[in-house]
Amino acid sequence: MNYLIFPTAQHAVEKIAREFVLYSQLNRPVHISLSGGSTPKLLFKTLASAPFNTKVRWKNLHFWWGDDRMVPPSDPESNYGEVQKLLFDHIRIPAENIHRIRGEEPAEQALKRFEAELSAVISDGVFDWIILGMGGDGHTASLFPHQTDFDDERLAIIAKHPESGQIRISKTAKLIERAKRITYLVTGLAKAEILKQIQTTPAEQLPYPAARIRATNGVTEWYLDKDAAKLLK
Ligand SMILES: O=C1O[C@H](COP(=O)(O)O)[C@@H](O)[C@H](O)[C@H]1O
User: 31, 85, 99, 207: which is deepest, by most CB within 10 A?
Assistant: First the structure.
């Protein structure tokens, strides 16, 4: 596994933020998929602050999400809503560069819209960069243990959180795996034990989607802080 271990979560997100600057200097639209939950909030706050808020050429970056919850953007559970509040409200980015999942719509309708936008904008399904998180149960995006079909050829699915029953829309494993680059950003002591299992057990023997989903023809890397990496050898 390709682990990059940083002294703190802030160091890890600053490295990602510097990559945003570089991607935005390419002379083309760059498609980046963001993760949700609590971990990437530090990244969004960092990107919204100096020097990144002005160094990134925002008009060159297009933003997507690995998953979102079926709630309106004003709900703190909305992955899009959090990025809007922490980042988009503080920078100048064209509205057409934001490709959100419409959590406020009925799930079937939002799924169709998301799939149509994916097919229209990224016809080969190859994202430049997909940033993912990992839940304490080993889920990534909204692909949960024991309910993920790793061979599903669709672009996106409707998923149900196994405990809360919350309805979500998620990219499929197959779509994620087509990316040129996948970066798992995982921080904090609470994720140390599961990372140890992922390091020491063959992925096929684990139920964790985060252990199994890797770029087929691209790079897969894990950005960890010291706490998350505490039990790694
Ligand atoms: O439910 C979700 O959880 C994972 C991990 O979230 P975290 O709070 O442990 O950082 C996240 O990657 C996913 O996008 C989100 O919807």
Answer: 31
| pLDDT of 1 | 81
| Mean pLDDT, 10 residues at a time, the chain of 233 residues | 96 98 97 98 98 98 98 98 98 98 98 98 97 98 98 98 98 98 98 98 97 98 98 96
Q: Which bin fits 173, alpha (ψ -120 to 50), beta or left (φ > 0)?
A: alpha
Cα of 35 to ligand 1 centre, how many Å? 7
Cβ neighbours around 75 below 10 Å, total: 13
Which two three-digit tokens encode residue 131? 């940033």
Q: What is the pLDDT of residue 74?
A: 98
Tell me which residue has its CA closest to atom 2 in ligand 1: 37
Ligand 1 contact via 142 beta carbon (within 6 Å): yes
Contacts of 185 (CB under 8 A, 6+ apart): 12, 13, 16, 35, 39, 40, 43, 131, 132, 133, 223
Contacting residues for 100 by C-beta, under 8 A, at least 6 apart: 64, 65, 68, 73, 80
Q: What is the value of pTM for the model shown?
A: 0.98
Q: ipTM of this predicted complex?
A: 0.95
Q: What is the pLDDT, as a whole number, of residue 107?
A: 98
What's the CA gap between 32 and 63, in Å, rounded? Answer: 5
The domain 3-225 is placed in CATH, from the list 3.40.50.150, 3.40.50.2030, 2.170.130.30, 3.40.50.1360, at 3.40.50.1360
